[in-house]
Amino acid sequence: MTPAPGITLIGAARFGESPLFPPVRLEIDPGSWSCLLGPSGCGKTTILRLIAGLDTGVDFDGHIRASDGKPLPGRVAYMAQTDLLMPWLDVLGNVTLGARLRGETPDVEAAETLVERLGLSEHAHKRPTKLSGGQRQRVALARTLMEDRPVVLLDEPFSALDARTRAEMQDLAAETLEGRTVLLVTHDPGEAARLGDRVFLMDRTGMVEAVPPATPAIRPAADSETLAFQGRLLDALREPAA
Amino acid sequence: MSGVWRGLAAAVLFVGLWQALVTLADLPPFILPGPVRVAGALWSNVGLIAWHAGITMAEVLIGLALGVGLGIATAIGLAVSPAARYLIRPALVATQSLPVFALAPILTLWMGYGIWSKVVMAVLIIYFPVASAFFDGLMRTPRGWLDLGHTMGASPARLLWGIRVPAAIPSLASGLRLAAVYAPIGAVIGEWVGAAGGLGYLMLLANGRVKIDLMFATLLVLAALTLLLHRSVGWACDRLVARLD
Ligand SMILES: Nc1ncnc2c1ncn2[C@@H]1O[C@H](COP(=O)(O)OP(=O)(O)OP(=O)(O)O)[C@@H](O)[C@H]1O
Ligand SMILES: [Mg+2]
């Protein structure tokens, strides 16, 4: 894998006449986790899709650059807000989809190991319709982790999980994605406090950065600084938009 | 199993209503023979009917294979090529304003009384439903799946085979189910216009010789074969959807 680049997104987005977000500046450091928090509908998914080079329907004035100057599309793995599992493939088939779509031989062994670590071994040959929401989300996570991409965009990847599984999956993702540039969209201040090397808050009025504790991510959840940071994030999210 | 019982119950109900109609309305056998008479005609002509059924089934099956093949190829061609969509699709839709039945005499004129004019009838009648159902499915792949394929670096061809085609199989299946019902219609109309064999031909022949119970027996066999075909195609479609991996 090539070294992970940093990403800068500077610009504003609007749908025709109606603005989505004003000029914002999002700086994602290479090889670390950045978290993006904000109320529903403020444009978080739009930002991920812009970075992934996907169609959004917005008019975006500005630019998105990788720190190494090379184009981003083709170097990005994107886990969307919905699981997007193929109903005609079983769990392993979904997890190895990327390789097959590129005409490569899928690394079934790696996929099986990953599926086991995600606690889905007994479901490896089931179709998605036979899985619960949280299980489906973990399959989608596994599929994303199988993509060997330097930039990883995660849109609320842990939202359907119980507290314990969520913490385990966060650990697993942090470990697996070590050294990659990750942008995580989340609604959970606790998650951002635990995982974010940098944390950005956005709403309709713009984007601000919150300064996380000095301890490097992934932080212990019960650590007093992490908790304090989580509290500050929640307060910031609850502030009425200026 | 419950399906078998339901089918059986429907058959019993159908025969009962039939007999009731004949008895209550006091219909003469040359208008509507009762079930017992028709069963008798079926029994005493079983070899004859089987021979003609074989011809019709051959026409239908060859027509199905060709029509489905052409329909699938057309749908894929249209789906991958905007130029083909622009040029061919309007023409394809326009051809549907022409009733295929009207072509039957011409086909017989060109291709004679053998099975091929009927095969072509069947092809013409099923081609459009198959092509348009599959094409619709191919064009309606959920956008999220396509986006996923794009970020994964799939080429257009792999996107087609890996995502668009499997996602469109349920649509294709509904086209195939229609085709299974339409194909015998095409073949029988072809036989009515001019043939040397087949269930449609036998019906006309029996009618001409006032063997009304034979005519109804033939009709019954035709209906049963169509039902069987519809069931088998449905079953094959279910298997296809279930096995896609
Ligand atoms: N075609 C469109 N025209 C106008 N507005 C649109 C269109 N598509 C999406 N939007 C709006 O764009 C906004 C941003 O959507 P986006 O998916 O980026 O939000 P989000 O921050 O990810 O929200 P959530 O947290 O609920 O996922 C939403 O308010 C949505 O209503
Ligand atoms: Mg979103």
From TrEMBL, chain A:
InterPro entries (UniProt xref): AAA+_ATPase, ABC_transporter-like_ATP-bd, ABC_transporter-like_CS, ABC_transporter_ATP-bind, P-loop_NTPase
Keywords carried by this UniProt record: ATP-binding, Nucleotide-binding, Transport
Domain ABC transporter: 2-229
Domain of life: Bacteria
Pfam family, one: ABC_tran
A GO molecular function held by the record: ATP hydrolysis activity
Family of this protein: Belongs to the ABC transporter superfamily.
Protein name: Putative hydroxymethylpyrimidine transport system ATP-binding protein
Organism: Tropicimonas isoalkanivorans
Lineage of the organism: Bacteria, Pseudomonadati, Pseudomonadota, Alphaproteobacteria, Rhodobacterales
From TrEMBL, chain B:
Membrane found in the keyword field: yes
A GO biological-process term: transmembrane transport
Annotated ABC transmembrane type-1 domain residues: 49-233
Membrane topology, from the record: Multi-pass membrane protein
Highest taxon in the source lineage: Bacteria
A family per Pfam: BPD_transp_1
CDD domains: TM_PBP2
Localization in the cell: Cell membrane
Entry keyword set: Cell membrane, Membrane, Transmembrane, Transmembrane helix, Transport
GO cellular component: plasma membrane
Gene3D superfamilies associated with the record: MetI-like (1.10.3720.10)
Database matches in InterPro entries: MetI-like, MetI-like_sf
Spans traversing the lipid bilayer: 49-80, 92-113, 119-138, 185-205, 212-230
Family: Belongs to the binding-protein-dependent transport system permease family.
Protein name: Putative hydroxymethylpyrimidine transport system permease protein
Organism from which the protein derives: Tropicimonas isoalkanivorans
